[in-house]
Amino acid sequence: MAWTKTIAYMLATCSLWLPTNADNVWPNEATDELEKMLFEQQNPFESSLATFAVPCSASGLAIGRGFGAEWIRNAYHDMATADVQAGTGGIDASIVFEKDRPENPGAGFQETLDFFRPRYTTRSSLADLFAMGAVFGVGGCSNGNIILPYRAGRVDATGPGPSGVPEPQEDLATHTAKFVKQGFNTTEMIALVACGHTVGGVHGVDFPEIVPNPQPPPVTGPFGNDNTVFFDTTTSNFDNQVAREFVANISQNPLAFGHNETTRSDFRIFNADGGDMISRMAESLDFFSQTCATLLERMINTVPPSVKLTDVLQPLPVKPRKWSIDVNADKTLTVSLTLRIVDTLLGGGIQALVKPVSRTGAALPATSPVVIGNISTSTCDYPNCGPSFVYLDYSINIPAEQGISSFTIDITDGSGKTTTYNNGGTGFPLSDAVQPQMSLSTQTTKTVNGVTLQQLNVTAAVYNADQYTNISLIVPQPSNFSATISPWVAEVAPMKASGKIAGTNYTLYTGSWLASNESAPQHPFDVLATGPQGSASSTFNSWGDVPFVL
Ligand SMILES: *[C@@H]1O[C@H](CO)[C@@H](O)[C@H](O)[C@H]1NC(C)=O
Ligand SMILES: *[C@@H]1O[C@H](CO)[C@@H](O)[C@H](O)[C@H]1NC(C)=O
Ligand SMILES: *[C@@H]1O[C@H](CO)[C@@H](O)[C@H](O)[C@H]1NC(C)=O
Ligand SMILES: *[C@@H]1O[C@H](CO)[C@@H](O)[C@H](O)[C@H]1NC(C)=O
Ligand SMILES: *[C@@H]1O[C@H](CO)[C@@H](O)[C@H](O)[C@H]1NC(C)=O
Ligand SMILES: *[C@@H]1O[C@H](CO)[C@@H](O)[C@H](O)[C@H]1NC(C)=O
Ligand SMILES: *[C@@H]1O[C@H](CO)[C@@H](O)[C@H](O)[C@H]1NC(C)=O
Ligand SMILES: *[C@@H]1O[C@H](CO)[C@@H](O)[C@H](O)[C@H]1NC(C)=O
Ligand SMILES: *[C@@H]1O[C@H](CO)[C@@H](O)[C@H](O)[C@H]1NC(C)=O
Q1: DSSP H or E run through 496
Q2: Which GO terms of type biological process are on file (predicted)?
């Protein structure tokens, strides 16, 4: 019956007109990378940092060190030089320039930097990564009991900030003043210290005056022994045990009951209000958790007023995860697309039709996913972090003359109901105007004056190239290779026409970028075409998709 079909169609497509959250659309340069790292913790494409912090009991790179505790400490020490009145400091990754200060002892800061730096890009500041490390540490160590809402947008410092991290031998007045400077009053100081000291401990190698540091016993692994004494008996659980044991006078915490009275800073801090706050935290795990969630969120969001953080990141229901558009000799385009879909939307099935839209806005035939072997999926490393995802691959063939500009997707759930996902109304943009042709591109190394440098040769297909006056390959690089981190600069290699693709309006352009330094990072690259009538680009392309040749 025709009318039934019409109604079904209207039901299926009515979400096109539902109001949607205008901000949570793809792409978003400010959040796409970070959203991926936050929510795709066990994905089939690349290793996730969250995995190192889970389980919380997993050792770091020495006996007595764990990544979760280390990353929470890293974020606090980075934040601790904030002056909220002056509007300076906060989470800005300045800790990377402050590692050799007496207030920052231990290998943990370098270790954290070494783990996070490979993820440091123009779309993921180190400060944002350090904040995310704290989210992973708290989420992993609380087994998902505390999920810190995560915002992006922190800006990296270009050098060290002032000193200001509290040290154990300082008196209560000094500590109170330092926390006030950071934006935390006495009650909040007590709570924040308890929250930070529910995992980890005091490392004898770094604080021999606080806990014994005998010669490390021989170990059979590659790593040493930090001679750590933990703050509480549940060092791998983000729980209120540290408060319970303090109130019960259990003497494990070296900063509360250690042999050295001078360094009993937790004892002084926990008693700063007569013991009221620490007792309340000891009495109720819920109160402890809620208090820690609030204060740690404030900690990671401590930034100068000039820095505007984004809204809390939410996982996109549908997100293009990988894509490429190849121009074929037979005058067609092959769009290879991997979509990440929240698995509950699919209801166990894989009915998800991609509906491409041509360059001029015409509907093109819908395409079902290609299924080869098992469907890949991603889950979080700890509960409550976010949804699980399914990755579906598509291979879409389109006449080059028609091209593609965007697509929508119709997903049928377990009950048979079909919903159109259209990225907030405009469809998911997927432009074929400028597309690197990975099979024609190469990466290699070249030795110049005895130094081995990376070389990236990119060939891109450019549609109606006549309209552009400048087509360039852009590889962001550190502005200062001597510095631990430095602002990114765009290194630009011009691209030259290397031939037309017969029977299409595509021209191939080729450019070659040679690294200026042997330690040049493989930062994702852009191809940018500009001209008087406008510009087109393909941004943040992964080196991983470019074949390596000797
Ligand atoms: C600290 O601030 C909190 C929240 O604003 C407030 O409830 C608490 O009473 C304050 N504590 C002190 C000692 O001022
Ligand atoms: C106690 O700690 C202080 C401050 O670090 C240090 O100067 C002192 O030597 C320590 N005392 C002992 C007995 O280790
Ligand atoms: C802990 O020690 C303090 C000081 O000696 C004492 O007042 C308190 O009652 C003790 N608490 C417990 C639970 O034993
Ligand atoms: C699919 O996954 C299952 C369970 O992980 C495994 O036993 C099976 O071999 C996989 N099949 C293919 C084709 O990869
Ligand atoms: C090339 O572009 C011109 C002008 O936009 C258009 O008329 C023509 O159909 C295009 N040809 C092909 C093969 O795409
Ligand atoms: C081409 O564009 C790049 C990137 O915007 C720019 O750096 C370069 O100077 C431009 N080249 C010319 C010749 O204008
Ligand atoms: C790479 O940078 C380092 C640190 O600035 C410098 O010592 C080295 O000479 C640079 N290499 C080249 C090839 O310029
Ligand atoms: C580069 O970084 C080094 C190390 O931090 C610093 O000494 C040097 O002044 C920096 N160079 C420039 C041009 O900023
Ligand atoms: C990359 O491009 C450069 C400059 O055109 C060329 O010398 C080199 O041979 C190319 N490398 C490869 C692997 O094609």
Answers
A1: strand 496-500
A2: cellular response to oxidative stress; hydrogen peroxide catabolic process; response to reactive oxygen species
Q: 479 CA to middle of ligand 8, Å?
A: 9
Residue (of 59, 360, 102) closest to 209 by Cα position: 102
Task: Determine how many CB atoms are found less than 10 A away from the CB of residue 501.
Answer: 16
Burial 517-541, CB ≥16 within 10 A → b, else e:
eeebbebbbbbbbeeeeeebbbebb
Query: In Å, what is the CA distance from 23 to each residue of 125, 314, 445?
Result: 20, 10, 41
Residue 282 pLDDT > 50: yes
Ligand 6 neighbourhood includes 529 CB (under 6 angstroms): no
- Rounded to two decimals, what is the model's pTM? 0.94
pLDDT, one tens digit per residue, over 178-198 is 999 999 999 999 999 999 999
From the list 149, 177, 167, 176, the residue with the least C-alpha distance to 299 is 149
Bridge partner residues of 149 (DSSP): none
- SS3 label, residue 291: helix
Alpha carbon distance 108, 110 (integer Å): 6
Average pLDDT over residues 364-371: 96
Q: What are phi and psi of 474, to 5 degrees?
A: -125, 125
Query: Which stretch of 16-25, 69-78, 264-273, 502-511 has the lowest confidence by average pLDDT?
Result: 16-25
Separation of CA 494 and ligand 6 centre (Å)? 8
Provide the pLDDT for residue 157: 97
pLDDT band at residue 61 under the 50/70/90 scheme: confident
Q: What is the DSSP letter of 81?
A: T
Residue nearest to atom 5 of ligand 9 (CA): 512
- Among residues 136, 184, 190, 135, the alpha carbon closest in space to that of 164 is found at 184
Nearest atom in ligand 2 to 261's CA? 1
For the stretch 320-324, contacts whose Cβ atoms lie closer than 8 Å and that sit 24 or more positions apart, written own/partner, are 320/26, 320/27, 320/428, 320/430, 321/36, 321/45, 321/391, 322/45, 322/545, 323/430, 324/435, 324/436, 324/438, 324/545
Q: Answer whether 504 contacts ligand 5 (Cβ < 6 A).
A: yes
E strands present in 348-441: 352-357, 376-378, 389-399, 406-412, 418-421, 428-429, 434-436
| pLDDT band of 4, cuts 50, 70, 90 | very low
**Helix or strand or coil: residue 90?**
coil
CB distance 140 to 53 below 8 Å: yes
Q: Which ligand is nearest to the CA of 458?
A: 9
Chain CA centroid to CA 95, Å: 18
